[in-house]
Design a protein that fits this description.
It is a single chain. This protein folds into two domains: 56 residues, Winged helix-like DNA-binding domain superfamily/Winged helix DNA-binding domain (Arc Repressor Mutant, subunit A); 175 residues, Rossmann fold (3-Layer(aba) Sandwich). Helices cover 35% and strands 23% of the residues. The strands form four sheets. A seven-stranded parallel sheet has the order 6-5-4-9-12-14-15, sandwiched between helices. A three-stranded antiparallel sheet has the order 1-3-2. Strands 10-11-13 form a three-stranded antiparallel sheet.
């Protein structure tokens, strides 16, 4: 198969499935994994997909401003947000990570909620700034421009001094064997500090991120108190997560 044909196949598959795996592509195309990696790297350089650990995902549409973030799978994230509402209460100290799942969640918070929310996500801080009764504390640090979150030791040090009732953590990927994983090392450190500062850890993850992995481990599954997905908790794909002892919502 010619390179152009292989790459057309890859782009069609990623459009249909929202992710591709290097090993699976090599089998589908009857080529080596190195050949697939070269194709993915070339498509990544052209801006046609985003190369990630073990495969690729669709390229996210870039917003024209920080006030105009694109929320992919918005319906799934609203389902997760509505489930998470049952975990909040007046008077709580809450930590929120970045990500559009948490951004969707903040838009659902009841207008009479009285709570203190710490976040290192600039878009989430700006969304919360519109809430009439929530005290918002933005944790400053080095700005990671693609995700619009702060990272680095400044963020870790602030988190290490907090004692929160609950944290809501978005996820790049999760699987039963490795637990919660992230693409970036610094982000993984911030999320570890976020967990250490919280009595309860809630992972918010859309179903297409289940059974995927990134290079840097944040925590094992048994360190999470609750996993919230857009699926019914008794969905077959969640069976092994339930066996790991995590509460599913």
């Amino acid at each position: 198969m010619l390179k152009a044909e292989r790459q057309k196949f890859i782009m069609t598959k990623i459009a249909l499935e929202q992710k591709v795996n290097t090993i699976t592509l090599a089998l589908d195309l009857s080529v080596s994994e190195d050949t697939v990696r070269r194709d993915l790297n070339e498509l990544n350089k052209k801006g046609l997909l985003e190369k990630v650990y073990g495969g690729a995902i669709p390229i996210a549409e870039k917003p024209t401003s920080v006030f105009d973030l694109v929320v992919v799978n918005g319906g799934k994230k609203d389902i997760i947000g509505h489930k998470a509402l049952s975990l909040i209460a007046d008077g709580q100290v809450i930590i929120m990570s970045g990500g559009t799942t948490n951004l969707a969640f903040t838009k659902l918070l009841p207008s009479d909620l009285k709570a203190t929310i710490y976040t290192y996500s600039l878009p989430i801080a700006m969304q919360l700034a519109q809430h009439p009764s929530v005290e918002v504390i933005f944790i400053g640090g080095k700005l990671q421009k693609n995700a619009m979150v702060t990272i680095g030791m400044d963020v870790v040090q602030v988190l290490s001094k907090l004692k929160a009732d609950i944290c809501f953590m978005g996820s790049s990927s999760i699987n039963v064997r490795l637990g919660l994983t992230e693409m970036g090392y610094e982000v993984s450190l911030v999320k570890k500090a976020m967990m250490e500062a919280s009595d309860n850890v809630v992972c918010m993850v859309t179903s297409e991120k289940l059974d995927t992995k990134m290079p840097y481990v944040v925590c094992e599954l048994n360190q999470l108190n609750i996993i919230i997905t857009d699926l019914n908790p008794d969905a077959p794909i969640l069976e092994e997560y339930a066996k790991a002892g995590v509460q599913l919502m």
